[in-house]
Write a structure and sequence with these properties.
Shape: elongated
Distance between the termini: 36 Å
Number of strands: 4
CATH topology of the largest domain: Rhomboid-like fold
Strand order of the largest sheet: 1-2
Number of helices: 13
Largest sheet: 2 strands, antiparallel
Radius of gyration: 31 Å
């Protein structure tokens, strides 16, 4: 098991930024799926739902105020395996296109910016439009689709004529694909997946604004990347401090000295052992082997084989 985890970690490190985000989304899904399985086995589904709700984005602003981190965490969570697979497939295809036009830091910033703006669109819409009035308390948002659509739209603005080969539709210009996706989301803002489609629109707007403003010399992802760099540096300092001050606990085989064993205790124990062997040898020289007890014979045998 340790070998598998090590191999996966090495693959994660070797991946480009798009692969790393796919790994992160899959890992988060698996963690919550396992929590759900264990909770179900113990007839505690409510516990799993409670844990899940802490990280998904609520439409209720009162709830959002006590879990503001959900503006970020929701975009790494998914409601089911197909939801995950579709978003990760889209992220893989369009993420690779994005990084050919922009940098790794831009990808990080646009992904997070699209998710944040999409989440805010969701919350604001549910609290502004009377159509959602009865659903505010019970509505939550999960999924990376707003972040992915930001990546798609930014790429389309940067290179509108770039052709994408779709499985059933054949070749399609990236600009047309982005427009069609946005129109579909707009037409379905009152559907059963209203929250998701509203978030799509927010993500699309974020990607559009990023690409337009970057052409004018202004990078909208700079504050996000600065915050990420600060947090990464802070974590690095905490990790180094823990590594320097942690207390290693090792299992020591019988008869072997621990690296952390105090010198005084070690020397005292060795002196007692040597004194006991000297006493047994003195007794042996005076009365012969037959004068030794069974315990003394055993001690002498053990000492001779060390």
């Amino acid at each position: 098991m340790a070998r598998i985890v090590k191999d996966l970690y090495q693959r994660f490190r070797d991946e480009n930024i798009v692969g790393k985000y796919i790994y992160a989304n899959v890992a988060v899904y698996l963690v919550f799926a396992l929590i759900g399985v264990v909770a179900t086995l113990f007839n505690a589904v409510g516990v799993a739902d409670g844990v899940f709700s802490i990280f998904r984005l609520p439409a209720d602003t009162a709830r959002l105020l006590i879990q503001p981190w959900s503006v970020l965490t929701y975009m790494f969570m998914h409601a089911g395996i197909m939801h995950l697979l579709w978003n990760m497939f889209a992220l893989y295809v369009f993420g690779r296109i994005f990084v050919t036009f922009f940098s790794t830091r831009h990808f990080i910033g646009v992904y997070l910016l699209g998710g944040i703006i999409g989440g805010l669109f969701f919350v604001l819409s549910y609290n502004i439009f009377p159509f959602f009035e009865d659903d505010v308390k019970s509505s939550y948002l999960v999924g990376a689709s707003a972040a992915v659509l930001a990546v798609v739209v930014a790429s389309a603005v940067r290179s509108p004529n770039y052709t994408v080969n779709l499985m059933f539709a054949g070749g399609m210009r990236l600009s047309r694909l982005a427009i069609v996706t946005v129109l579909i989301s707009l037409l379905f803002v009152t559907s059963d997946n209203a929250g998701g489609n509203i978030a799509h629109l927010g993500g699309a707007l974020a990607g559009f604004l990023f690409a337009i403003m970057l052409n004018k010399g202004r990078d909208l992802t700079t504050p996000i990347n600065a915050a990420c760099s600060f947090l990464a540096g802070l974590w690095g300092k905490v990790y180094r401090w823990i590594k320097e001050h942690r207390t290693d606990i090792r299992i020591v085989k019988p008869g072997r000295r621990s690296d952390r064993e105090a010198d005084y205790e070690y020397n005292a124990r060795k002196k007692d052992e040597n004194d006991e062997i000297d006493r047994i040898l003195e007794k042996l020289s005076q009365g012969g082997y037959s004068s030794l007890t069974e315990e003394e014979k055993r001690r002498l045998y053990d000492a001779s084989h060390k």
